[in-house]
Design brief:
about 220 residues; 4-stranded mixed β-sheet; 7 strands; globular; alpha/beta
């Protein structure tokens, strides 16, 4: 795979992709986390997905090891693995390619197609987790603050979603420093979700995606 798409993109945006061997070497530095299904990863300049595709592959290998004998658990924990990966990308064509690459990995693993609820739910999750925006300004392409969905699996086919603003999450270390205005506050007082949703099934997630895209 070429490490650049064009010299102009390198000059305009500093766009150079990370080679696969380097991605693997870097993920090996956090091997336990990269192979844990519910660990959360954020790539602030995700490009077409070189890093997060590898993270998803490692997580799915863990899913197969732990839940491969149960189709129900395998499908739901595979979706959870996808839910725990986030990305921000400045260039619109890259984020579209990144979403497609991530979806391809999941659909191949689960052997599903576009008619499957898990496919449509995954498409919706990727639209929320992989954001077209700027990690430096912490805003999406329209200028609004980046908001990420925190997903959790409650078991028995139900997922929980809470939304948090990215700019608030990045201030965690500042709030915890001694002598600051907010040092006495607990995390529960600082990191309040902007929205909390009722538990949802895969079919309900799939329907949410259909409603959202139907309004575009």
């Amino acid at each position: 795979m070429s490490l650049i798409k064009s010299r102009k993109r390198v000059a305009d945006h500093g766009e150079v992709f990370t080679p696969a061997w380097m991605v693997d070497a870097m993920l090996d530095l956090v091997k336990d986390e990269s192979e844990r299904i519910d660990s959360r990863f954020l790539e602030p300049a995700c490009g077409s997905g070189n890093f997060i595709v590898k993270v998803l592959q490692r997580k799915l290998a863990a899913v197969e090891c732990k839940f491969g004998k149960s189709d129900f658990e395998k499908q739901h924990y595979a979706l959870l693995a996808l839910m725990c990966i986030y990305g921000i990308e400045l260039l619109e064509d890259n984020i579209a390619e990144c979403r497609a690459n991530m979806l391809d990995i999941l659909t191949e693993y689960l052997s599903i197609d576009e008619s499957d609820d898990f496919y449509r739910a995954a498409t919706f999750v990727l639209s929320q987790n992989l954001v077209h925006g700027d990690a430096l300004t912490m805003c999406v392409s329209t200028g609004e603050p980046i908001t990420f969905a925190e997903w959790g699996y409650l078991g028995k086919g139900k997922f929980q979603r809470r939304d948090f603003r990215f700019d608030t999450l990045t201030h965690s270390s500042a709030y915890s420093q001694e002598g600051t205005l907010f040092a006495h506050l607990g995390k529960h007082e600082i990191f309040m979700p902007t929205k909390t949703y009722p538990p949802m099934t895969v079919s309900e997630l799939a329907a949410l995606g259909e409603n959202e895209y139907g309004q575009d």
